[in-house]
Amino acid sequence: MGQQAWEARVSVKTTEGSVDEFMSRGNSGREILGQALRSSWDWAVRGWILALSPYRYPVKVNYAKWGKSGSSQCACDQSAESFIHLQLSCLLEHRRNARQEGHNRVAKIVENCMDNIHGNHRISVWDKQVSTFLHSLEMSRPQALLLNALTIEELGTWKRAIGQTRTPQQQAGRKRTLDDIKTYFDREDLTKRPDGMIFDFHHRTIYVIEVARTGDSPGSLRNRYLKKTFKYASIVEGLRKAFTPCKVEQITLVIGLLGSIEESRWRQSLEAFGMTRSQQDKLIRRCMVATIEGTHLVPVGVGDT
Ligand SMILES: [Zn+2]
Q1: Of all helices (H) and strands (E), which one includes residue 208?
Q2: 62: CA distance to ligand 1 center in Å?
Q3: What is the reported pTM?
Q4: Rounded distance, CA 85 to CA 88, Å?
Q5: Distance CA 216, CA 257 (A)
Q6: How far away, in angstroms, is 96 Cα from ligand 1 center?
Q7: How far apart are CA 66 and CA 3, in angstroms?
Q8: Ligand 1 centroid vs 80 CA: distance in angstroms?
Q9: What is the 3-state secondary structure of 150-175?
Q10: Distance 262 CA to ligand 1 centre (A)
Q11: What is the distance between the alpha carbons of residues 123 and 132, in angstroms, rounded to a whole number?
Q12: pLDDT per position as a tens digit, 159-175
């Protein structure tokens, strides 16, 4: 049965129950998801509905249930071809690439929205190694002032000096080089690549941003959040030591393939970043559209290789 025939067949089945159940989960951003679905492409919304409906998504596991194909084994030979396998762990190259593209689209939206917040007193790098971030701090202000070791008492002088476009008269803090700063990090940490790193020299805060897509269950969202938080913990610790008394905030934004988020956690992070409620709403809505459309990028169906 071809893709079109399949979709015609499943579209006559009612899907309201499973969609309603999904949409009624609390603290998951459902109000905004409703808006996001209205601004997503029709084909992506159709895929979204199929993914929520039992046995409807066109993967081998479901074809097998419908008696259309004998084996539910995926062509990558690692597992049965289910929606979650297809989207999150399939080893086939074209699916891996589509998955990467889905992530990149969400991350790009986070980048665009975040670079609009207090941009004039922030330095940001996106999708770069930690060492590149440190280098950009060295290059960005007169005499590499952002690298200087500071005491609380020196912060005021430091901030004024950073605000000047010319070389300041007075040395603010103890001069350090990039090599001095690097001693606070393991060599391996310097090559890690969080999605974003931002130095806010007005609020004296460094943000480490990570974006991840995963399954939509509360357990998946939480586990992915914990894994990502742990992955960058040593970088956060290094930054804290290197840039005392600046603060370091880890912002880990995990979103489901079908648009679920841990809403309170997202809002807490985005508020700490300096976003108003309406800026948060806009970012969340755009990320939801990107993840739903991204899910549709992964080729589905028997014989798509
Ligand atoms: Zn596979």
Answers
A1: strand 205-214
A2: 15
A3: 0.89
A4: 5
A5: 6
A6: 10
A7: 14
A8: 7
A9: CCHHHHHHHHHHHHCCCCCCCCCCEC
A10: 28
A11: 12
A12: 888 777 666 666 777 88
